[in-house]
Amino acid sequence: MHLDRGFWTATAVIVVLSLLAIVWWIVAPIQSIMPEAVNRAAQIDLLFRFLAATGSALWIAVLGYILYFALRYRRRPDQGDDAIGLQIHDNHKLELWWTLIPTLFVVALAIFSVKLFLEIEPVNAQGNTLVIEGLGHQWFYTFRYPGIHGEVKEMHLPVGQPITLHVSSYDVIHSFWIPDMRLKVDMVPGLINTFTFTPTRVGRYELICTEFCGTLHGDMRSGTSNDPAYVYIDPPYKYKAWYDATQKAQANASDAVQVASAGTVSLAGGNPAAGKALFVQKCSACHALAPFDQKIVGPGLKGVLHDPKHPTLVSGEPATPDNVAKILQNGFTGPMGMMPNQTANGLSDKDIANLVAFLNSLK
Amino acid sequence: MAVAAVHSGGIADHIHPEPQGILRRYIFSIDHKIIGIQYMITAGIFMILGGMLAEMIRVQLMRANGGFMTPDTFNTVFSIHGSTMVWLVIIPMLTGAFGNLIFPVQIGARDVAFPWLNMISFWIFPVAGLMLYSSFLMGAPTAGWTEYPPMSLQGQPGTSMWAAAIFLIGVSSTMTGINFLVTILKMRAPGMTFTRMPLFVWGQFVTAPLLMIATTALGAALAALFIQREFGVPFFDPTKGGSPLLWQHMFWFYSHPAVYIMILPAFGGISEILPTFARKPIFGYKMIAFSSCAIAILGFMVWAHHMFTSGVAPALQLPFMVLTMLIAIPTGIKIFSWVTTLFGGVLRFATPMLFATGFLATFTMGGITGVFLAAIPFDLHAHGTYFIVAHLHYVLVGGSLMGILAMLFFWYPKMTGRMMNETLGKWAFWLFFIGFNGTFLPMHWLGMWGMPRRVAVYDPQFQTWNQIASLFSFVMTLALLLVIVNVLWSMKNGKRSGHNPWGARTLEWQIPSPMPYYNFKHVPSVFSTPYDFGEPLPYRGLEEELSDSSAPLPAAH
C-alpha cells in the first residue's frame, strides 16, 4: 500500500477544511442569534460548539476522502473489465486506528457531558430558591407562585434569583421549552418533574410545547391567540411590582380548582399516634413521609402544614388543618392524579382528625 | 449425527416439486424469491401512499398558518406517514423483501427453513397494512407513530385499529425473525462458516434476533393500549394508578432496536455493493461483522435515551447516555472501513455504487447528529424539535432508503434477468441526493432555533426555510417517481443482464437470472470468503448451474 503525493495533498486540504470548520464553531456568534437567558445556557452552548466542531471535522474527513477516492480511483479507460483493485483484506494497525478515533471522541464527549449533566441536574433546593409550579393544559400553561392564590398565566422570574421549577400536567403530556434558556422538561400527568436554574438576562422569552398534545399543539406557544402569555425575566423591582399586583388581583379570584363543600369534620382531640398508624396503613402506598417533591403517586406529605415553600395545598387553598381535612373528606382530582374521597377511602371523621393531627405534628 | 446429515446434503437437498397453478405459484407461494418480490411490491405500494402523506405534510408547512388541511387532518397525516414508513416500508423492504430474496441463495440454501411460515408472515403484512389504512374510515390516530398516552387515549376510534394493525405486523416480524435465524444457523452450504458468510447475511443474522425479541415488547405495549382503550383497564392512566411513562419504556424498548432493524440489513447491502464496484475485498471483514453484533447488543441497552426529558431518574439517565455514545464506536469502525474499501480500488460508478456512496455521505451525517443527541444537556434543547426530524430522516432516508435503492438497482437483474436503465438511474440518484439534502438539512437549524416537531402551524419567522425544504422535497419525489418508472419500464425493455452483470462473487450471482425455482441444481461447497477479486471463485459444485441441460435434481426425501 503506497500513499502518493495526491493522497497527502487531499489530506492537507481535508485537514485545512476541518480546522476551518472547528474555528467557525468556536467563534460562531450563537448568542447573537439565540440569547443565553439562564446561567447554564452558555455551558450547554459550549457543549454544542464541541459537538458541532468535532462532528463537522469528522464529516468533512469522511466526505473528503470519499470524494478524493472517487476521483482518484475511478476506473480509467485503459483499465479493462477484469481490472482489480489492491487486494488488501485488513490491516491491523489501521483497524486499531479506526477503533481508536471514535473511542477517543466518545470518551472526550462522555466526560464533558457527564460533568455538565451533574451540574444541571436539580440539587436539593437550598437557601433562597424560589419554588414555582408549572402546569400544562390543552393548550396553554399556568403557574403557581408561593403566596399567590390560584394559578396565573404569565410567568415572571426575577433576574439572578435561583429558581426551582416543578412541572406537571392536567391532561396529556406537554413539554416546557424556552429555547433561549436551552431548557426543556416534559409535563407528565401524575408525575412531577423538577429542574433548577438561575435567570441571568432580562427580557421577554417564548415558551413552546414540544410534546405532541392534540389539535392545537402547534398553537401552544407564546404569542399565539391561544396562549398570548410570554415568560418574562424581570429586574427585581419590576418582579416585585408584578408579584404584588398579581397577589392582590388573585386574592379575590375564584379558585382554579373547586373543592366541593366546606369542611364539617371536627378536628378537636385528634390523636397523632393513632394518625401515624392510620397513615402507614392507608396513605403510605401513595404518599411518602418526605418533602413535597418526593412523590410516589401523590406528593410527599412531610411538613405539609409547615413548609414555607408550599404555603398552598394542591387544591390551591392555604395549608391549614381544616383544608387538609377537606381534601381527606371530599377527595381531590388534579394534575397529579386522583385522591379518593371519604366514601372511597373509608375514613371516619375521627380517623380524619387523627390523621390531620399526625400531619400537623410533622415539621 | 445431525451435523453429518446436513453436510452430506440431507436437509439441504430436501426439495419439493414446483407448483404449476397461478394461485400456488404466484399468490400463496412458499418460494422465498416469490415471497420476497411480493413483499417488495406491497411495501412499494405503501411507500407511494406514505410518500403522498409526506408531500401533504410539506404542502401544509409551506405556509406558517397552514391552511391546506385542518390541524386534526394534519395530525392524522403525519401519524400514518410515520407508521407507514417504519412498519410497512422500511422494515419489510429490508427483511421481508431483500432478506427473503437474497440471503438464502447467498448461503447456498434452496429455501428458508420454514417456507409455510414465510408465506404466513407475508400474508399478514398486507392485511395489517389495510387495517392501518382503514383507520382513516373510523377516525385515524393523531398522536404520531409513537402514540404516547394519555394523548392516544383521547385519540379517535381508529387508534385502536392502529394498535391492532401494528400488533399483527409485529407477529409477522417475529415469525420472519425466527425463520431467518434458523435458516442461517442450520442451512448454510457445506464449508460456509460464519467468517465466510457474505456481509449481507451477517446483516440479516444480526437483525433476526432483534425482530424476535424486541417485537414482543411492542406487542405487549400495543395489547395494553388496546385493552385500556376498549375495556378501560388503566395501564397508562395516572388518575387510576397507571403510568404514562410505562408506555414510553415499553415502546422504546422495541423501537430503539427497531432503529437497528431498519439499518443493519442496509449496512449489509452496502458491504456487498462497495467491494463489487471497487473490485477489491471489503476492508476489515471481521470488524464490520462483529461491529454489527456490538450494535445489536448495545441497541437493547439504550432505549431511555428517547426519554431524557420525560422524567426518568437522573441515576438511570447517565448510563443510558454513556451506552448510547458507545454505539458511535462500532458505527465509526464501519464507516471508516467502508471508506478505506474505496482506497486503491478500480471504482465503477454505476447506479448502485452511486447510491451506496451517497449512503456513506448522508448516513454519516445522521450518525454524527445521533451522537449529539446522546449528550443529555444538548438533548434537553433539541428533543422534540425539527432537529430530531432532520436526524431521523438522515438515518432512515439518507441511510435505510438510500440503502434500499442501492440494493434495488444492484439486485434487480437477479430478480428479472434485465438491467435497470442507467441514464434514468443516474438522474434519479442526483435528483434524490440533492432533493434529500435540500429538504432535511435546513431542519437542523429550524429545530435549533425553536421550531417544534409535529406542528400544523408555526412561527412565521421559520417560513422561508420551510418553503425551501418543501421545494426540495418535490425534487426528491420526482427522483422516486423516476425510480418507479425505471422499475416498470426495465421489466420489459431493460438490457438482458446475463447471470452476473456486476462481476460479483457471492453465490446468488453464480446461478441464472432470474433465479430458478430450486436456486441450485447441486448445493455447492464453500472454501473461502467471497471478496477475493482476481482469484478463482471459492465454490465447488457449481459447474452445471448455468448449463441448459436439465440435470436430474436429487430425489425428494
Description:
The complex is a heterodimer of chains A (363) and B (557). Chain A has three domains: 5-73 and 88-120; 130-251, Immunoglobulin-like; 272-361, Cytochrome c-like domain (Cytochrome Bc1 Complex, Chain D, domain 2). Chain A is 39% helix and 14% strand. Chain A has nine helices and eleven strands. Chain A has helices spanning 5-27, 30-33, 41-72, 92-120, 236-251, 272-283, 321-330, 342-345, 349-361, and strands at residues 130-137, 140-144, 155-158, 163-169, 174-178, 183-187, 193-197, 203-205, 231-234, 332-334, 337-339. In chain A, the strands form four sheets. A four-stranded mixed β-sheet of chain A has the order 2-1-4-7, with no helix packed on it. A three-stranded mixed β-sheet of chain A has the order 3-9-8. Chain A has a two-stranded antiparallel ribbon with strand order 5-6. The radius of gyration of chain A is 29 Å and the shape is elongated. Chain A starts with a helix and ends with a helix. Chain B is an all-alpha fold and 557 residues long. Chain B has one domain (2-540): Cytochrome c oxidase-like, subunit I domain (Cytochrome C Oxidase, Chain A, Up-down Bundle), CATH 1.20.210.10. In chain B, 65% of the residues lie in helices and 1% in strands. Chain B contains 18 helices and two strands. Chain B has a two-stranded antiparallel ribbon. Chain B starts with a helix and ends in a 17-residue tail after the last strand. In chain B, 62% of the residues are buried. The interface between A and B is large, with 88 and 91 residues.
